[in-house]
Amino acid sequence: MVDKIKLARLLRAFAQIVESSTEDELKALERLSISEILSAGGASKRPSTVKLRRSPRPSESGDFTKLIESIRYLPSREAGVSLIERENLDKRSLERIARHLDLPVLREDSSRRLVQKIVEAIIGSRLNSEAIRGDSNGR
Fold it and tell me: Which residue has the higher pLDDT, 130 or 55?
């Protein structure tokens, strides 16, 4: 009998690997058939032609912590958008930042929308809180 919980965990782990894979890795995976994977030694071994690896998350690699901290203390949403745009980040990097911040990331989200979500999460929430409290100078 199939253990539904174990299968669901396996599929979630596979989905995470696919989400963090590069285009080349996905193309290589797409070329494989199930029989090729199984003939290469089962699920525990991967064919040597495919090298799927999980990209480091921002929290693990520390790639974006400096950027996030820089954004955190900016005085306006516009300044946050400007700073992120100067970094010239691709959509994948923006998705990684958003996931690091525990923001929902949709496949349909454009780079512009991801920037808005990130800025709102980091700056917007602080500015809204300050406005509610009546803080005019922030800190």
Answer: 130
Q: Are residues 18 and 70 in the same domain?
A: no
pLDDT confidence of residue 133: 87
The Cα 38–Cα 35 span in angstroms is 5
Report d(CA 29, CA 10) in Å as an integer.
17
**Residue 104, CB-side half-sphere exposure with 13 Å CA sphere:** 2
Q: Which residue, 38, 55, 72, sits at the end of a domain?
A: 55
Q: Supply the range of the domain harboring residue 73.
A: 58-133
Radius of gyration of the chain (CA): 20
Count of Cβ atoms closer than 10 Å to residue 88 Cβ: 7
Q: Is 30 helix (H, G, I), strand (E, B) or coil?
A: helix
Question: For 66, what's the count of Cα atoms within 13 Å in the CB-facing half-sphere?
Answer: 4
Q: Are 71 and 115 members of one domain? A: yes
- What's the pLDDT score for residue 137? 58
**Is residue 2 in a domain?**
yes
The pTM of the full predicted model, rounded to 2 decimals, is 0.53
